[in-house]
Write a structure and sequence with these properties.
heterodimer, A: alpha/beta, Aconitase, domain 3, 2 domains, five-stranded parallel sheet, 16 helices, B: alpha/beta, Aconitase, domain 4, seven-stranded mixed sheet, 7 strands, 32% helix, binds iron/sulfur cluster
């Protein structure tokens, strides 16, 4: 009897099971552990218990959430914020960890930095105390977010107790239309399956539209797997993946790289591999997409109007819609393209890589923004390259601010907040109430769409404006 | 962490889907030490007139009956600290964010998943008589509503054992030390590229 065909997920999972308990819980070996400033609770827990970091050589710390977007040569003014950055420096130093601190030449958002540095590789298990760890699945890694107690467990043991999740394959075939990007694709997926549609599942994204994406686009798609409730998102590694990895600072080199690639070529799902759920979408049917509510599942084509709760049959659902419209300050039936915006934010681990900045610059080149905006590259290398290409000039000429790398206005904890009641066209991943600041209103969209909104001062179908 | 066995307490209904961890604990409180009293930050920006958690009729509530996708979003364990420090021991909902549910179990907060209509009916029942109590029996895996109707629930046995014992997982894992060492040795042979060389 031959073994049943296995999926990418099956292969990565099976290769990392140290032991399984009779109740089905598996102890998984962890290959990469990333930590950011928010991990101070976890360091406190191992320190309190007198435990050491078991595999410091697999553990990396990154300052991203609290770092300032401006004036980095100055001390951080807010003592509590400054403390978060220096506390991580101290924890990393005490445990002997490779630390990408505020002034490191590779510094950036952890989910941008790790792929860029070659720390993220196919077939690895990767965890971080951050829900968007799913991003790294773009390489065919099993990558997921964990909480502080689990972070402390990984620090102490380099393993994690997990129950084998269910699997879902999302197949997107066909070709994306002009100005339709990976961001529009993933927003359409979330709208189709719901904000908890993939709860308890690991998603594998498949199909010709996925294979046609660059690594940047794949990272965007896997980044938002968590916004559909998924434990992780994965994409089979292929030549696009290997070409991206080759030559990166921490990636295997020479003969070791060749051996790794030979191994990685065996990772993709085999024909006939069975998934607990299958979802299919047609890439050609996806329009530039924006959200109208306070959940990423409220994504609709930009050509649509704000939906009417009165037309919703389910009273519970209608009530939820009214609450969201009230928070967002929107009237049912308003065409989305008539919604004025107050500011734009281009950045975050979803959309702050070079391809994203180029797409935004293509729309902004030779144009002026009519609202204030902030562009924050995902890492120092992205920032340097963007400057080498003159993208920073394009943003400055358009009237937008050019920031230093970090999470910035995605979550606002470094002080970059959307003022209360203001409406922000944002390339981030969460439009939750208060996410970008108390009473801030967030519309999620692609970098090109955010750039178009900056130019017109309202939500705009970038296809009508076009790039330059 | 405090072991969880049985609990009889006031349950407060919250008719909002997709309550994310940013709402449970706004991001600006994430830099606070646990000693700052996370209970004070619970739902900090949602505390508007009419918010059920501020309704004196539900005073002393230790059970939260929520709607689908509770605890979605950010992995911040502080959201669980805020609930626990705010007095809650149990959340009932049709579905939970996976990371939130894992964090909850590590901190003695029981998450009970029940079908949508059962949770909706329970919320309506609690709204009819604010301050009514429910009973949770974890070993028996049952929730008893204010009318005495018994709702059985499923729970991962690993999670259940951990909640009842109130134990630290690291101690359990360290019993597997030999297996972990053996795994690491074999893996180092199979994947020579595992440990990054560095630039
Ligand atoms: S950019 Fe936003 S979503 Fe990404 S890690 Fe930072 S705060 Fe989280």
């Amino acid at each position: 009897m031959t073994a049943p065909p296995r999926s990418l997920f099956d292969k990565v999972w099976d290769a990392h099971v140290v032991t399984t308990r009779p109740d089905g819980q598996a102890l998984l070996a962890i290959d990469r552990h990333f930590l950011h400033e928010g991990s101070f609770h976890a360091f406190g827990m191992i320190d309190h218990a007198g435990r050491k970091v078991r595999r410091p050589e697999l553990t990396f710390t990154v300052a991203d959430h609290y770092v300032p977007s401006h004036a980095r040569s100055q001390p951080i003014a807010d003592p509590e914020i400054a403390n978060m950055v220096t506390l991580l420096d101290a924890n990393a130093a005490r445990h002997g960890l490779r630390h990408f601190g505020l002034h490191d030449p590779a510094q950036g958002i952890v989910h941008v930095l790790a792929p860029e540095q070659g720390l993220t590789l196919p077939g690895l298990t990767i965890v971080c105390g951050d829900s968007h760890t799913s991003t790294h699945g773009a390489f065919g890694a099993l990558a997921f977010g964990i909480g502080a107690t689990e972070v402390s467990h990984v620090l102490a043991t380099q393993t994690l107790w997990q129950r084998r999740p269910k699997t879902m394959r999302v197949t997107i075939d066909g070709t994306l239309g002009p100005h339709v990007t990976a961001k529009d694709l993933i927003l359409a997926v979330i709208a189709a399956i719901g904000a908890d549609g993939a709860a308890g599942h690991v998603i594998e994204y498949a199909g010709s539209a996925i294979r046609g994406l660059s690594m940047e686009g794949r990272l965007t798609v896997c980044n938002m797997a968590i916004e559909a409730g998924a434990r992780a998102g994965m994409i089979a590694p292929d030549d696009t993946t290997f070409a991206f990895v080759e030559g990166r600072p921490f990636a295997p080199k020479g003969a070791l790289f060749d051996r790794a690639v030979a191994h990685w070529r065996g990772l993709p799902s085999e024909p006939g591999a069975v998934f607990d759920r299958e979802v299919t979408l047609d890439a050609a049917a996806i329009a530039p997409t924006v959200t109208w509510g306070t959940s990423p599942e409220t994504a609709v084509p930009v050509t649509a109007a704000v939906p009417d709760p009165g037309a919703e049959a389910d009273p519970g659902r209608a009530g939820q819609m009214r609450k969201m419209l009230d928070y967002m300050g929107l009237a049912p039936g308003t065409p989305l393209e008539d919604v004025p915006i107050d500011r734009v934010f281009i950045g975050s681990c979803t959309n702050a890589r070079l391809e994203d900045l180029r797409a935004a610059a293509a729309v902004l080149r030779g144009r002026r923004a009519v609202v204030p905006g902030l562009v924050v590259p995902g890492s120092v290398p992205v920032r340097r390259q963007a400057e080498a290409e003159g993208l920073d000039r394009v943003f400055a000429d358009a009237g937008l601010e050019w920031g230093e790398p970090g999470c910035s206005m995605c979550v606002g904890i470094n002080g970059d907040l959307v003022p209360p009641g203001q409406r922000c066209a944002s390339t981030t991943n969460r439009n939750f109430p208060g996410r970008q600041g108390p009473n801030a209103r967030t519309h999620l969209m692609s970098p090109a769409m955010a750039a178009a909104a900056a130019v017109t001062g309202r939500i705009t179908d970038v296809r009508k404006l076009g790039g330059r | 962490m405090e072991p969880f066995v049985t609990l009889t307490a006031v349950a407060v209904p919250l008719d909002i889907a997709n309550i994310d961890t940013d709402q449970l604990l706004p991001a600006r409180f994430l830099k606070k030490p646990r000693s700052a009293g996370y209970g004070n930050f619970l739902f900090h920006d949602e505390r508007k007139p009419g918010f059920p958690l501020d309704d004196p009729a539900y005073a002393g509530a230790r059970v939260l009956v929520a709607d689908r996708n509770f605890g979605c979003g950010s992995s911040r364990e502080g959201a669980v600290y805020a609930l626990v420090d705010g007095g809650f021991r149990c959340v009932v909902a049709p579905s939970f964010g996976d990371i939130f549910a894992a964090n909850a179990a590590k901190n003695g907060l029981l998450t009970i998943t029940l079908p949508d209509d059962a949770v909706a009916a329970l919320r309506r029942r609690l709204q009819r008589t604010p301050g009514a109590t429910v009973t949770v029996d974890l070993p028996a895996q049952t929730l008893t509503d204010p009318d005495g109707a018994v709702l059985p629930f499923a729970i991962d046995p690993f999670k259940k054992d951990g909640l009842i014992a109130g134990l630290d997982d690291v101690a359990l894992t360290l019993q597997q030390q030999d297996a972990i060492d053996a795994f690491d040795r074999a893996d180092a042979e199979a994947r020579h590229w595992l440990v990054p060389a560095g630039p």
